[in-house]
Automatic annotation (TrEMBL):
It comes from the Bacteria. GO terms for cellular component: ATP-binding cassette (ABC) transporter complex. It is found in: Cell membrane; Membrane. The keyword Transmembrane helix applies. This is Zinc ABC transporter permease. Keywords: Membrane, Transmembrane, Transmembrane helix, Transport. The chain crosses the membrane at residues 6-30, 42-71, 83-104, 116-147, 167-200, 212-236, 242-263. Belongs to the ABC-3 integral membrane protein family. The lineage of its organism: Bacteria, Bacillati, Bacillota, Bacilli, Bacillales. It comes from Tumebacillus algifaecis. It is a multi-pass membrane protein. GO terms for biological process: response to zinc ion; transmembrane transport.
Length: 287
């Protein structure tokens, strides 16, 4: 299977995305900003449409639009503290509307653009890989130096402010990083499903782990399994990789929830029997 060059590129790109997207996902889920990735993907779509229309590198214009969207999300979130979801609604609809208008101006929508919508295993080229590697390195440096401040900011923003952490700049930097990851994930997963690659591994990991660090590690492992198995299924079944990856991750989530419910049911039954045995023993002793 790996004798095909395009497939090697797809697996390399998928591996890099799976290393960073779930880490970002754990933070945005814990910060209750799960829709931020969805919003940035819509804004990034407008950038991709503009790039296709003007003949520029679509991933670059998509990244620029995602960065602009990340700044707007952070600014609007602080302007409407009591209605923080308002910024999500405004930018999501604005990004999609801009993308639709730009697409209508392009009479011949190219195949590369549709691959950004739904993902494609043949859409990744060597330039995309270099850009993804750069974003991966940037994410690694960010979390290496700012792991602790981000941890405090995620769980208690007020405590972070009192502790002297520059919460505003740190939050903005994290939003910009999220925008970059969303933009570089589009060729594999597609703009319509890119947020799932962040949120689903995080949701599964948080159900399995009680510790933060373990949750991050589990999310990366689950993300890698979902992406690589999804790409393999996509190749053999000739189906879109984005949808396949997301369905694999949803299948894992349903399995985990089901297994946990069965385990809880068994533990409850065993606990009830033990309690009944203790009560019966005490009754016999009293007699």
């Amino acid at each position: 299977m790996l004798q095909y060059g395009f497939l090697k590129n797809a697996f390399l790109a998928g591996g890099m995305i799976a290393l960073i997207a779930p880490v970002i996902g754990v933070y945005i889920v814990l910060r209750r900003q799960s829709l931020v990735a969805e919003t940035l993907s819509h804004v990034s779509l407008a950038g991709v449409a503009l790039g296709v229309l003007l003949g520029y590198y679509p991933m670059l214009t998509g990244m620029a639009a995602a960065l602009f969207g990340a700044i707007l999300v952070d600014t609007l979130r602080r302007s409407f503290r009591s209605y923080s979801e308002l910024s999500i609604a405004i930018l999501m609809s604005g990004g999609l509307a801009t993308a639709l208008v730009l697409m209508s101006m392009n009479q011949g929508v190219s195949r590369s653009f549709t691959s950004y919508l739904f993902g494609s295993i043949i859409a990744v080229n060597s330039t995309d890989l270099l850009v993804m590697a750069g974003v991966l390195l940037l994410c690694a440096l960010f979390f290496f130096f700012l792991w602790r401040p981000m941890y405090v900011l995620t769980f208690d923003e007020e405590t972070a402010e009192v502790s002297g952490i520059p919460t505003r700049w740190l939050s903005l930097a994290f939003s910009l990083l999220t925008g970059l990851v969303v933009a570089v994930s589009m060729p594999i997963v597609g703009v319509l499903l890119v947020s799932s690659l962040m949120v689903l591994p995080a949701a599964i990991a948080l159900r399995l782990s009680k510790g933060f660090t373990l949750a991050v590690v589990l999310a990366v492992v689950i993300g890698l399994f979902g992406v690589l198995s999804g790409l393999t299924l996509s190749f053999y079944q000739d189906i879109p990789p984005g949808g396949t990856i997301v369905l694999v991750l949803i299948g894992i989530l349903i399995s985990v929830l089901g297994i946990k419910r069965v385990v809880l049911f068994i533990q409850t039954r065993l606990g009830s029997k033990e309690d009944a045995g203790v009560i019966a023993g005490k009754t016999v002793e009293e007699r």
